[in-house]
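User: Structure with MRU, tokens only please.
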Amino acid sequence: MTANLQPLPPTIAWRGGPDGHLELLDQTQLPHRYHVLELGDLEGVIDAIRRLSVRGAPAIGVAAAYGMVLGVRRAAPMANALVETARLVGAKLTAARPTAVNLAWAVDRMVQAAIARPALPDLLREAQAIHAEDEASCLRMGEFGCDLIGAGDTVLTHCNTGRLATAGDGTALAVLFAAWRKGTRFSVLADETRPLLQGARLTALELAAAGIPVEVIADGAAAGLIARRQVSLAIVGADRIATNGDFANKVGTYAVALACAAHGVPFYVAAPASTFDPQLDDGRHIPIEERDATEITAFAGKPVVAAGIGARNPAFDVTPAGLVKAFVTDHGLLRPPFGPAIKQMLRSGR
Ligand code: MRU
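Assistant:
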């Protein structure tokens, strides 16, 4: 297949006013087909989040904010019932995917907005503010992180952390896009990211479309390439970061971090403040989503495991803070010791 490098439609867009609808680029069909879902109800948004039509921690948060508008709108409550409805709708959205804290963060912000101004146009304005802030925070991560990338570097990344994972340029990929715009020339190794292939299907597409040299590798090839000094640095995103710096990201991230530590290769994490969870002291209690075993036992719709054999499918793993050289956030770079740096950042607002 020749890569489809037509410009991608927006990952997330709201069309119209409070009676409008949500558009999501259906990422399950990429890179083959650019299909935009038009969603006018809460169930459609929850289904899109569960099926990974929209995915990536910040993008899930923005989609959920618009899902709140759709859910509250259908209930068409009187002002005094709107807050209760917002809470119920928010609980349904939050249950759609448990690991990325941006989802609960966006829902909570929408509930607080409903308490302060219980009217649908105000809720839509809040969702649009969350959307715009995410775009701006991606640019800031790019600016703060771009000097970590040097000329001639080979950068390893895992999963997809770009325009398809956020409402803007991305998290880890925003750093790469910003470095490239600045004129730094480097190349990227994208882990394919089994089982759903976000690296192969999405990251490679986004980087190639931006003109950045990229090659896809099997996840299991990463450690060997790191050991053979064929990786200058690794940079990944995060779905939830505890206040000590332990973080959850796509399954396979921990193995990359361990290999980097074993061979003295810098390992960076890029994430906005909304991905930090002020309630968690460390990574032990981060909820890890277990997805359907068929994502492992079948490939491209065909069984690859003999009938009757089961599978485990944790979608995320937790990497200890000690393996991270720095966090690139929308508030700046955080370096060890992470505890005080994270707490100070969270005091200045999420
Ligand atoms: O299951 P996904 O595709 O939603 O997982 C996404 C990731 O793990 C990303 O690395 C993470 O959300 C950071 S993206 C900006």
